[in-house]
Amino acid sequence: MQNLVHRLCEQSTAPSAPENRSSSAHHRIHVPHPFTPAFNGDSKVLSFRAFKAKLNVVFQRFESAFETDTQCVNYALSCMTGPPLEHYAPVFNGEVSDDEMIVENYDTVLALNGLPNS
User: Fold this and answer.
1) DSSP per-residue letters across the chain
2) What ranges do the domains of the chain cover?
3) pTM (two decimals)
4) Can you tell me the distance from the alpha carbon of 66 to that of 80, in angstroms, rounded to the nearest whole number?
5) pLDDT in tens, 9-19
């Protein structure tokens, strides 16, 4: 059973045959599920350094799915929980203005200003 799952995963990430550029709108980009454990600011569970490394690996492996900073920010946010997620939630929920352009700037999110244990 594990071999079957492994082969299916390989097939889903393997490059497909070249396609007509006009049909690119129908091409589906594989976006990985958020990784676990999620970053919660507790370095005993997942350090900030390890969190950034995992993000970098995902962004490199699935490069076509993360072409903009906004796509990277959204994925990074989906890999957070606890204090880090609470820190950014007001911006993403539209409760406060995004003066620092967090939604559009991956480097700003990685700064994690004011977060405990980062």
Assistant:
1) -HHHHHHHHHHHHSPPPP--GGGGGGPPPP-PPPPSSPB-S-TTTS-HHHHHHHHHHHHHHTGGG--SHHHHHHHHHHTB-HHHHHHHHHHHTTSS--TT-GGG-HHHHHH-TT-TT-
2) 30-111
3) 0.70
4) 17
5) 454 444 444 44
